Amino acid sequence: MSPVWGLLVLVVLFMMGMPVAYAIGISSVVIMAASTGIKWVTISSAMIQGLDSFTILCIPLFLLSGKLMNRCGITDRLFTFCRALVGWFPGGLGHVNVLASFIFAGMSGTAVADAAGLGQIEIRAMEANGYDRDFSAAVTAASSTLGPLIPPSLVLVVYGMVSGESVGALFMAGILPGVVMALLMMGLVTYYAIKNQYPRDPFPTGKQVLEAFRGGILPLMTPVIILLGIYTGIFTPTEAAAVCLMYAAFIGIFVYKAIDIKGFMAVVQETVREATPICAMVGISTLLGNVLTQSMIPQTLMGQVLESVHSKWVFLLLLNVGLLIVGMFMDSSAAITILTPIIYPIAIGFGINGIHLGVVMILNIVIGVLSPPFGVVLFTLERVAKLPMKRLIKALLPWFAILLLALAVVTIFPSISTFIPSKMGFQI
Q1: pTM of structure
Q2: Angstrom distance (rounded) from CA 82 to CA 73
Q3: Number of domains in the chain
Q4: How far is CA 275 from CA 55, 68, 118, 152, in A?
């Protein structure tokens, strides 16, 4: 039996609804059984190696800090600050929506947290100011995709763990692509604002801006602490996550007094429930990557791909199309965990930078979370905005075009992803 059958088993198990970690583990065993020369002790050693990592602590720490920010009402302060900055633009609250998501991404790192945390505030405020619900929900959904790109991104951590690329470099690599996406979204907001004559806030006074800044200064320091700490080498991404958590707990409990110890422990329990499956997937994906390498599956696939596809641009085109389809059916962390060990060596064979590849893969998967039939952000916004799914998807169509344009730009120009990490001294 060919080891490739193990990959087919993985696909079948996943489509049957089996938890991803179990599906990866079973398919790894099938591949080992079909291969020669692989020692079964690999199972225990590879899984331990995958979990015994300082970097993996980023996942629960950043997840917990993001949840604390949400629970402590920081989203309201953030929205007020962004409104003072860009609310006077044409389609003001649409721009506020995008900017707030961009900043909140530096605190939560996930699209769902953005959609759930900021979504209610943004949609309610936009409707109260004369924006139609379809537009409000669409811009909220689209801007939530910034979360997985702007540091600290949980998906970037997962990719770094599976691929072996520097998590710090990946954090820096996501900034400019995130800026490109935000600017394109703001351009579309402006178009709709002029077309539909959406309202905007009056130009704020210096006093109003100062008051909004005072209210939002502590939350705004979160991404600053993360980026400056990593940039200056004061702490690693994992240490940045720990500092971020302590900071969030301090301002939530002692400054804003928005949460007590009992509430804090409830957030911790919720985080454990969400982080455990992700960490398990990362650990067991190390086993899959090890088994795949020893069974020569990636090498075989790479040889076949290199023989049939002679241009890296054709490969990138096929990769984007394939990942967009995958993103429609799979959770982002699961997709990255399963596909990276297969795609990474092939991409390297084409001379594609591993950091650039990570950003492209995640941007594709991010678009998938907005796509039917299983886009998790769609279901979140369906509840938040109280819109029928068909109506929400129709409203999102122009935003899909913007996201695909951003994907094309980031794919064609690798320097957008590699510029900042290379300037900061990371090995690119």
Answers
A1: 0.75
A2: 15
A3: 1
A4: 14, 15, 21, 15
